[in-house]
């Protein structure tokens, strides 16, 4: 298994991918569990347009873990995460304080920019 901030591609026809995605401000933040319905809706919307199979999903107050399987020959995980994060963020009132960099990019101050991914090539 390979874990890093950058995803290492996999050419397998079928591979399971483990992801960890964190909120920007984690301490004392229960945003994900408080708005779990919004997160579910965002994931379901993305799954319709960009299918993937969920093998496991754990939502904690300030971060989430999931094990997903992308369709064969489709390793475009970054679009899926971008859309899930965007759908969730757009459903929330804009109350967070953003730094200059996030303001310039039009980003919300909700998610860490990175995510950790790993794949299990033995699952193929």
TrEMBL record:
The Transposase IS200-like domain, residue ranges: 12-124
One GO term of the biological process aspect: DNA transposition
GO MF annotations in UniProt: sequence-specific DNA binding; transposase activity
Domain of life the protein comes from: Bacteria
SUPFAM superfamilies recorded: Transposase IS200-like
NCBIfam families: REP_Tyr_transpos (NF047646)
PANTHER family in alphabetical order: REP-ASSOCIATED TYROSINE TRANSPOSASE
Protein name: Putative transposase
